[in-house]
């Protein structure tokens, strides 16, 4: 008759050696003997209760580097000499057990202990490298634009999930490093770290953290796929032709920049054949921004009896819920604009303008304006026949 299998979620991570051993020994006293781990879930076989001892040893690879079915034969043979049976792998650790109460501890042999210490040292180096990666990712996130800008474009809920990932990832690695270092010191003294008296409570927190991490990863993956499919980070579902904009545009457009009496027409060029977002807008609002617009216009202005002028502008307009939020966003955009991929560096002296703050990027055609709760970021592309110095007063006057 085939033995009945029982499945259990481990209450602790694999690197928490003492807690894992205590958990397995408790289950053995309940008549559950470990068979293997599958996808992080423990598979057990029912048998008579026993006072089985379990020990975890840092996984030493076998002679074949491509063989991940078990530890090196040398490590298994050494353990068998002391009466310990190899069971399976969990993470970076090999699990051994014995029913012999007289069997010596697994790590009393100095050669075996040395193997474990070398493997733990490699694990520590790997976790440090991962910690550096998370730190660089957090730095990149900060330099990419800022928290407020991302919250406006991606939504508060997605920003909160991203922050959980950016903060939780390094904290989790630091916790791992702490346990590995403590285990290394314990092995050097010939003992194992004691199990925390609150290990059951810690098990609940561990499982909760795993579920939260899974939710964060799945959500971020889903959002990435959605934005990859739609081609942008805006929460607006799709770009809309400029002609369908409802009501008055709250900033200057190509019609305001064109010479008086000029006729506007679509500018047909090499770029317009490939850019599907030209002469379109996206609009949305939320808890932080009462109104947000991404506007890209690509026109030719032909004045009566004059020479035609090309105008290509890209505008990011934000009307924040409060003036202090607008000041915050202005500071973020002045360092790095995530939404428009424009870096604003050295400021250019500007004439008196009817706005509260203004910045013009040196040697380029980008400007940043703030008036009250309104923030306007404008990019004038090289194809245009206008200069930003001429356009800034017009954009400033258009903010009400």
Question: Which structural traits does this protein have?
Answer:
single chain, 400 residues, alpha+beta, Protein Transport Mog1p, Chain A, 3 domains, eight-stranded antiparallel beta sheet, three-stranded antiparallel beta sheet, 9 helices
Q: What is the structure about, briefly put?
A:
With 400 residues, the chain is of the alpha+beta class. The protein is 39% helix and 22% strand.
Fold and architecture overview:
The chain is α+β, with helices and mostly antiparallel strands and 400 residues long. The chain has three domains: 5-104, no CATH class; 110-230, no CATH class; 243-398, Protein Transport Mog1p, Chain A. Helix content is 39%, strand content 22%. The protein has nine helices and 14 strands. The strands form three sheets. Strands 7, 8, 9, 10, 11, 12, 13 and 14 form an eight-stranded antiparallel β-sheet that branches. It is elongated and about 105 Å long. The model is unreliable at 62-67, 230-237 and 338-345 (pLDDT under 50).
* Portion in strands: 15-25%
The residue ranges in which pLDDT falls below 50 over 5 or more consecutive positions are 62-67, 230-237, 338-345
CATH T-level fold name of the largest domain: Protein Transport Mog1p, Chain A
Distance between the termini: 83 Å
């Amino acid at each position: 008759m085939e033995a009945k299998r029982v499945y259990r979620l481990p209450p602790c991570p694999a690197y928490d050696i003492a807690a894992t051993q205590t958990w397995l020994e408790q289950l053995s006293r309940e008549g559950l003997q470990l068979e293997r781990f599958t996808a992080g879930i423990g598979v057990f076989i029912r048998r008579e209760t026993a006072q089985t001892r379990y020990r975890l040893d840092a996984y030493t690879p076998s002679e074949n580097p491509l063989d991940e079915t078990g530890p090196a034969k040398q490590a298994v043979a050494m353990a068998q000499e002391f009466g310990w049976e190899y069971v399976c792998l969990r993470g970076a650790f090999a699990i051994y057990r014995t029913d012999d109460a007289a069997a010596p501890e697994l790590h009393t042999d100095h050669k075996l202990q040395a193997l474990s210490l070398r493997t733990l040292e490699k694990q520590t180096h790997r976790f440090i490298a991962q910690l550096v990666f998370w730190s660089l990712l957090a730095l990149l996130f900060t330099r990419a634009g800022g928290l407020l800008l991302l919250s406006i474009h991606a939504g508060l809920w997605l920003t909160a999930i991203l922050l959980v990932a950016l903060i939780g990832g390094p904290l989790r690695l630091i916790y791992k490093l702490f346990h590995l270092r403590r285990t290394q010191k314990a092995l050097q003294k010939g003992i194992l770290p004691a199990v925390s008296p609150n290990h059951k409570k810690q098990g609940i927190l561990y499982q909760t953290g795993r579920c939260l991490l899974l939710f964060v990863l799945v959500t971020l993956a889903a959002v990435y796929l959605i934005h990859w499919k739609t081609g942008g980070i805006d929460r607006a579902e799709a770009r809309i032709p400029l002609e369908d904009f409802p009501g008055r545009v709250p900033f200057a457009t190509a019609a305001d920049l064109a010479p008086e009496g000029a006729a506007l027409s679509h500018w047909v060029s090499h770029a317009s054949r490939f850019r599907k977002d030209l002469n379109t807008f996206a609009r949305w609002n939320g808890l932080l921004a009462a109104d947000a617009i991404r506007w890209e216009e690509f026109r030719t202005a032909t004045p009566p009896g004059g020479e035609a002028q090309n105008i290509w502008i890209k505008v990011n307009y934000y009307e924040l819920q409060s003036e202090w939020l607008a000041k915050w966003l202005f500071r973020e955009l002045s360092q790095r604009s995530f939404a428009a991929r424009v870096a604003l560096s050295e400021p250019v002296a500007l004439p008196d303008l009817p706005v509260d703050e203004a910045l013009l990027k040196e040697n380029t055609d980008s400007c940043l304006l703030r008036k009250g709760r309104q923030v306007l970021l404008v990019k004038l592309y090289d194809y245009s026949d206008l200069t930003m110095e001429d356009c800034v007063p017009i954009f400033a006057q258009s903010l009400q």
